[in-house]
Amino acid sequence: xxxxxxxxxxxxxxxxxRIRELGRLGRLSEAREVFDAMPFHDIIAWNSMxxxxxxxxxPDAARSLADSISGGxxxxxxxxxxxxxxxxxxxxxxxxxxGMPVRNTVAWNAMVTCYVQNGDITLARxxxxxMPSRDVSSWNTMLTGYCHSRQxxxxxxxxxxxxxxxxxxxxxxxxxxxxxxxxxxxxxxxxMMHSEGISPExxxxxxxxxxxxxxxxxxxLESIHVLVHKAGFERDxxxxxxxxxxxxxxxxxxxxxVKFFEGMPVRNEYTWSTMIAALSQGGRIDDAVAVYQRxxxxxxxxxxxxxxxxxxxxxxxxxxxxxxxxxEPNTVSWNAMITGxxxxxxxxxxxxxxxxxxxxxxISWAGMIAGYAQNGRSEEALVLLQALHRNGMLPSLSSxxxxxxxxxxxxxxxxxxxxxxxxVKAGCQFNSYVCNALITMYAxxxxxxxxxxxxxxxxxxxxxxxxxxxxxxxxxxxxxEARDTFDNIPSRDVVxxxxxxxxxxxxxxGNQAVEIFRSMLQEHELPNSPIxxxxxxxxxxxxxxxxxxxxxxVAVKLGMDSGLIVANALISMYFKCGSADxxxxxxxxxxxDIFTWNTIITGYAQHGLGREAIxxxxxxxSAGTLPNEVTFVGLLHACSHSGLVDEGRxxxxxxxxxxxxxxLLEHYACxxxxxxxAGDVQGAEQFIYxxxxxxxxxxxxxxLGACKIHKNVEIGRRAAAxxxxxxxxNAGNYVMLSNIYSSQGMWDEVAKVRKLMKEQGVNKDPGCxxxxxxxxxxxxxxxxxxxxxxxxxxATLRELYTLLKAAGYVPDTEFVLxxxxxxxxxxxLMYHSEKLAVAYGLLVTPKGLPIQIMKNLRICGDxxxxxxxxxxxxxxxxxxxxxxxxxxxxxxNCSCGDFW
Length: 900
Hints:
By secondary structure, the chain is mainly alpha-helical. Strands 2-1-3-4-5-6 form a 6-stranded mixed beta sheet, covered by helices on one side. A hairpin with a 2-residue loop joins β1 (about 770-775) and β2 (about 775-780). The longest helix is centred in the C-terminal third of the chain and has 17 residues, at about 790-805. Pfam families: DYW_deaminase, E_motif, PPR, PPR_2.
């Protein structure tokens, strides 16, 4: 017999209510026990159990139950449509809808809502237009769809056509403008409603308060405050809590929020929890604890907000104590505690708590899977997803997206494909969140073909989808296509700009990254901290101090210069540009982390200021900051470039003895460099043989470089042989060995090396130098003939040679790798890229102005001597950053002390 023919009985109402309550709590097994124990079931009981399954992400179980009563009634079908909609299974929802023998407006609305919830506004509108009859809910559902798909023009057009509007209609439009960050239009919509004589109600006021919180206009807030009193809502705790939310949006308004909170005539559990959460998130955890202690109710929401705040600030043990004091924690509290453990990287503790949960909902499973994936335990995330599936539950959208993230982490392509199939089975393969996660997963697994297919087939593409696709193209070295996609995004956000700017920066196209940034500012988009950090890195790599200063100015205007990440990037940029402003930034910082100290130690090392690097390290120790592996790389570099052998040995020993840090290949390379530069080439070689780990190319290269400096042919030959086998395509190794041979006049050996290079197809990287003059970057390559002023540059060089030779300069022809006469060797040396750059600097800049040059390779010995003489004869300060370190030339001397 169809369920709609079952007799109604008031005797089942209590059990049905209990089933609904247990379903709301996620306690499905208990709900089913109540259902099965009922002597008979009316349609209300059936629908209560079906609804419980649907609301807990188990629409298939609900469908199975509905089938056992011949499909139920209209209400049953509508519940199933809504259940499949929440699970993202649009196709299954449509199958249920199409199979309903009778459909009323509520059922049509449920199906339209399904399309809206899953981002398919096109099909939603098609179904809406086909409806035999519509009520105001139908129109409001479509309004919601347009708002959520960020089509506010379409929403406004539909709003204007509505035959009837209710308070929900106005609220949806106001909320839609807020959602799309058009807060001024949200306020205008509220004013229009008010001008039409419609008195505001609680939902309107709550929505418009959200808009006001983003407008940052306290005058408007005060006017709303007045309106609240006039409308008789001054004791409405929901509106009061919404106003409190406005005050708590900014850390700078927390004191005002506290004052408002203290003056509230009525408070409920959410008021208390809102204040506790705001203070916690604002870094005022002690104040949050004080408010919590005054809470007379200490409700589960308040306790949960408090334990969440404690967990977020690292007081996880206090959070656990509070959790254990909750008499009957609900699922939200259990989930909050598990999330707290995951946030503090205490995965085992989260796992233990998850296993003890008396009942779990889809958020519990999703939180654990996400926690595993985010804490580097991706395999366990995937195992848990399998357990979820074995329990007869299809994963939620959150669980699926976290699982795709886990596959991305470990590049598990085959597992990802299986999960993709599961998403298809769950009917959510077209959901935008799932598609975006799939794009990211396939991109990380280097399967760009699948990425294209997914993106092309997406029925709804939001900004996140475009950003994911651009990132995928960038990861697969398809920068031009990524740029084309970026240029065609219907709506860009700050992530879009960050992605494309970062892509050009990583591709060593810094100038293009800067141009895109300028376009971003012209479009009145404000950059975030990552963009500023990327551009500061570009400025540092190019040695473009003026660019770095401009970015610094932008950071100051936006109030981002004091943030740790940006401040650390500023220090690094100024060091790379040879500017003392790095120290000004460092001295002005109120907060410093290990990256700050490491950046300044490394900066001093680049400039060959070993003693200063050690002094900073001592300050760091006094400040109580523990060094890490990077700290010691910086210290050892500093010692190496300053000839501080004993100090370097002491730091190398201190790593393991004082701090329990195991030396890595980078540290061994620094020690080889330190010993070799100091002249102990044999000791450096023996150090390599005594290493407990296999040496890499960097270590052998450090030894070869020492052999070049000290002209040790035999050890150099052995080091080069190792390098030729490890990295046969690295031209620098061949060049260094050739330099060693040529310095000893071993031209036959030089010829053999050049022949070997030719056989291996290895080409020497051309020397390149560049400098910034009046906001324009000028670059030179060795033997350059392309620069627009090359004839004037050559003439200046010839004049310089005459002056310098009169002052005692003698060209060092050992750096020419050819057995040719001295005049040809001298001519070859004249046109090295750094000499061309110096000549150009002297030619176009006023007398006495410092000259700064960047170079891709190490400066050669002859150029080093040449520039020392230039600084003496011309009385110019000349700074050169080569591929290894800074050289500051002053009055005929170099800061490196000829030790580089």
